[in-house]
């Protein structure tokens, strides 16, 4: 009879009976009783009352019985800590048992009993087991150290267990090495500041030797540890890659992905000119393809990882397009992922077979998959220019099927194709307009409205088409309403005489009858533009649009580099860094790829290069004055204005006050230009009074010492302006201003991290400038700058730097370095920071 019989009894008085059986003299009866206790515990019954009786059964030579008792002990020790101390003597005794299995069992159970009271009693047995003659006991003790560290880190450090673990990396047995590495990695993750895994070429060599003889999980531990090592040069990186490559043919997919992670990381350090680099690319493809023959769940994990690899190095799988073709019995999540990778690998060489495949997918029955397939055709047109015509004809064929959701997706992607290739495929607009009535999804309706508005001059009945959408304006989604408003304004600017009534109607609906602030604001802006300066309105609304990029869904480069370091983990499946889904951030270490050691050109000018860097050619990376959006300080250098300072500030753009006030005076005159009607001004929005500093006439106020009481202790401080936007500096945004207080000049900086990784190692340098401005101290950012964190720093300046006349005179070129890159920007400093406060001039 099987052990299932232990789970069937549910009679009263069972605990009392078990107590009697546990205290029986017969060994068999004891074993049966312990099995019944474990069965009751497994199904959720509370058998903690039998704790002392079960612990008494520990004193036995029977290995099976001892395992069962230890299992019970692990489960109930936390709820009965005082009773658990009774078991300590047995642990100590079992750790000296001649049988290595019992010694290992005792040390394993010790690590699983998470009770503070008894941890100190377990240090001596653990120390002996770490130096045990049997490797099975040593490898079990290595893992026990990590568990003990989790309970009481200070105790483990005081007892010297961490040093013993480090010694085990040199052990003769590969499994002991693997477990020691796993334990140290686990401890290092929870304490990132401690340098436990101090890897060097000698220890790396030992790990690589152990790698060939480990079990599969041991190999994963070692490969993950290797991935955290940064080789000193490309020769060492190549040597490690050569010894890791055989792991690619392992049967276990986790080992394969861990090996791929190591190789992807170390390839960064190899020059692309090396023969070995090409060989490595060829070797990486077959194991990745093999992963796709596993069951669907493993395929999905492999595909998510392949998606990252293809974004980083598409050349690895560029000849393997066919393995990503969808099979009829693939689950939907595998199909969608394969489709994504197909588009990433699409090129001029394989586009014909990709399009044939996608057209086939668009006739499937699965709606989500068909939608994605139609979008994929559009993405291929945008990515491979030579295939655009073929893609458009394929989409037209699909529109002719009259399948509602296919038609709607096709219209959405054709809009993107028009954006990418303007004035090339507009002949298809007539076909699109035929399907106007069948559109019921917001995205498709918005795309069609955009097409009608954009090409209104080519569509005879554009006003009728847009008017048909206007009938149910309030029932439309915000996306459609915004698009309709813009399209009708475009139509009016192209055909002003025919559409005055229509544009008045839509502006009224958007501004007066809508609760949506975005729609209302856009309506007001268009209304004021049209009512004051139709020529400017034409320039704004009908401005030439930038072409859309090929790949809009690529992962940001810094995030991609971090995710490559997490191949084979959850982060690579979610496509998010661990800090985004690990609560509390404990144990999360931000990783990045090693820098390329291959010869690369210097991007720094001689003056901007950090100390010790070789001087190279000066590159024009700092924007010229023409690129700056006017004088950031916006000082008014006109003549002084008599009378009291203004209490309010009016926001101006050219001669028009967009937020009301000045609008009324403009309404009387007929605007010149394109025969625009006399618009009724929309209700003027009120501007709150600026209660801060009163605005005078710029520099005349800066030196107006009579308005204050006594003497001026500090000069005017301009508000902080954004000097370096985040999109130009991989997520780092720098705002700042210049101040002069009591004879000292300083640059007040505000650093904001808008990236997904931590920023450290900040430094700053100025280029030579007209007045020799230079930092008087290093840039001090005392703690790492976490994502979404902002820090304010005041950098003292002096005027003892190198001098070179700049154009304009107060132009300052700055370089800021952090752990990600070096970034450059240019700004203008106000000349008054150079003037002394007392205003006296020297006699000479």
What's this model, at a glance?
This is AP complex subunit beta. By secondary structure, this protein is an alpha+beta fold. The chain is 46% helix and 6% strand.
Could you characterize the architecture of this molecule?
- The protein has 35 helices and eight strands.
- The longest helix is centred in the N-terminal third of the chain and has 17 residues, at 135-151.
- Strands 1-2-3-6-5 form a five-stranded antiparallel sheet, with no helix packed on it.
- The N and C termini lie far apart (113 Å).
- 33% of the residues are buried.
- Helices cover 46% and strands 6% of the residues.
- Among the domains are: 441-550; 721-834, Immunoglobulin-like, CATH 2.60.40.
- The chain is globular and about 110 Å long.
- β7 (811-817) and β8 (822-828) form a beta hairpin.
- It has 844 residues and is an alpha+beta fold.
Provide keyphrases for this structure:
three-stranded antiparallel beta sheet; 46% helix; protein transport; transport; AP_complex_bsu_1_2_4; 844 residues; Immunoglobulin-like; single chain; alpha+beta; five-stranded antiparallel beta sheet; 35 helices; AP complex subunit beta
């Amino acid at each position: 009879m099987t052990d299932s019989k232990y789970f069937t009894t549910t009679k009263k008085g069972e605990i009392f009976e078990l107590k009697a059986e546990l205290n029986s003299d017969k060994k068999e009866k004891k074993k049966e009783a312990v099995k019944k206790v474990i069965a009751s515990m497994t199904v959720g019954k509370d058998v903690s009352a039998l704790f002392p009786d079960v612990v008494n059964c520990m004193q036995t030579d029977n290995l099976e019985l001892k395992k069962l008792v230890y299992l019970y002990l692990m489960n109930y020790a936390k709820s009965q800590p005082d009773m658990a101390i009774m078991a300590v003597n047995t642990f100590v005794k079992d750790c000296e048992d001649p049988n290595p299995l019992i010694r290992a069992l005792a040390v394993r159970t010790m690590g699983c009993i998470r009770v503070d009271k008894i941890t100190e009693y377990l240090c001596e047995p653990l120390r002996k087991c770490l130096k045990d003659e049997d490797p099975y006991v040593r490898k079990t003790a290595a893992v026990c150290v990590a568990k003990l560290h989790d309970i009481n880190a200070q105790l483990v450090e005081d007892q010297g267990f961490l040093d013993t673990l480090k010694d085990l990396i040199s052990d003769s047995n590969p499994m002991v090495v693997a477990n020691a590495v796993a334990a140290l990695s686990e401890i290092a993750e929870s304490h990132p500041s401690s340098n436990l895994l101090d890897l060097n070429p000698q220890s790396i060599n030992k790990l690589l030797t152990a790698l060939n003889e480990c079990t599969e999980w041991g190999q994963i531990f070692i490969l993950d540890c290797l991935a955290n090592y940064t080789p000193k040069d490309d020769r060492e990186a190549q040597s490690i890659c050569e010894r890791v490559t055989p792991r690619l043919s392992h049967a276990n997919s986790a080992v394969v992905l861990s090996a791929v992670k190591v190789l992807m990381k170390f390839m960064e350090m190899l020059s692309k000119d090396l023969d070995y680099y090409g060989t490595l690319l060829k070797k990486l493809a077959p194991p990745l393809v093999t992963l796709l023959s596993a069951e669907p769940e493993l395929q999905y994990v492999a595909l998510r990882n392949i998606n990252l690899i293809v974004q980083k190095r598409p050349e690895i799988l560029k000849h393997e397009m066919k393995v990503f073709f969808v099979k009829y019995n693939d689950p939907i999540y595998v199909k969608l992922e394969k489709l994504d990778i197909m588009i990433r690998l699409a090129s001029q060489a394989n586009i014909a077979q990709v399009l044939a495949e996608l057209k086939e997918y668009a006739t499937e029955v699965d709606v989500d998959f068909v939608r994605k397939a139609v979008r994929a055709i559009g993405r291929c047109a945008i990515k491979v220019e030579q295939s655009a015509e073929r893609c458009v004809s394929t989409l037209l064929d699909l529109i002719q099927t009259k399948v509602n959701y296919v038609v709607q997706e096709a219209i959405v992607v054709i809009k993107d194709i028009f954006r990418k290739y303007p004035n090339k495929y507009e002949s298809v607009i007539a076909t699109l307009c035929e399907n106007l009535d069948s559109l019921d999804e917001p995205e498709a309706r918005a795309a069609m409205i955009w097409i009608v508005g954009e090409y209104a001059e080519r569509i005879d009945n554009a006003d009728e088409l847009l008017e048909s959408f206007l009938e149910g304006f309030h029932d439309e989604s915000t996306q459609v309403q915004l698009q309709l408003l813009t399209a009708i304004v475009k139509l009016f600017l192209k055909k002003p005489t025919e559409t005055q009534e229509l544009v008045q109607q839509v502006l009224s609906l958007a501004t007066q009858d809508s609760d949506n602030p975005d729609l209302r604001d856009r309506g007001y802006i268009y209304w004021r533009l049209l009512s004051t300066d139709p020529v400017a309105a034409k320039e704004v609304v009908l401005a030439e649009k930038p072409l859309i990029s090929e790949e809009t869904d690529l992962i940001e480069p810094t995030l991609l580099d971090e995710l490559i370091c997490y191949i084979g983990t959850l982060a690579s499946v979610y496509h998010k860094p661990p800090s985004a889904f690990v609560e509390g951030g404990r144990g999360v270490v931000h990783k990045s790829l090693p820098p390329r050691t291959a010869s690369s050109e210097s991007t720094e000018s001689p003056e901007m290069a950090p100390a010790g860097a070789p001087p190279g050619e000066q590159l024009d990376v700092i924007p010229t004055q023409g690129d700056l959006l006017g004088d950031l300080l916006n000082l008014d250098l006109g003549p002084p204005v008599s009378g009291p300072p203004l209490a309010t500030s009016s926001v101006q753009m050219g001669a028009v006050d967009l937020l009301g006030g000045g609008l009324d005076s403009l309404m009387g005159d007929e605007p010149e230009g394109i025969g625009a009607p006399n618009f009724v001004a929309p209700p003027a929005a009120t501007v709150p009074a600026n209660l801060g500093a009163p605005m005078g006439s710029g520099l005349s106020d800066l030196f107006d010492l009579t308005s204050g009481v006594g003497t001026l202790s500090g000069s005017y401080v301009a508000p902080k302006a954004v000097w370096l936007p985040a999109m130009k500096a991989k997520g780092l945004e720098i705002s700042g201003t210049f101040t002069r207080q009591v004879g000292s000049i300083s640059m007040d900086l505000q650093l904001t991290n808008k990236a997904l990784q931590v920023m450290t190692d900040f430094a700053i340098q100025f280029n030579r400038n007209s007045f020799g401005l230079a930092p008087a101290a290093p840039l001090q950012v005392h703690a790492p700058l976490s994502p979404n964190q902002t820090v304010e720093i005041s950098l003292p300046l002096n005027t003892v730097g190198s001098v070179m006349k700049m154009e304009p005179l107060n132009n300052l070129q700055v370089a800021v370095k952090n752990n990600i890159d070096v970034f450059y920007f240019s700004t203008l400093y106000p000349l008054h920071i150079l003037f002394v406060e007392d205003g006296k001039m020297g006699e000479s």
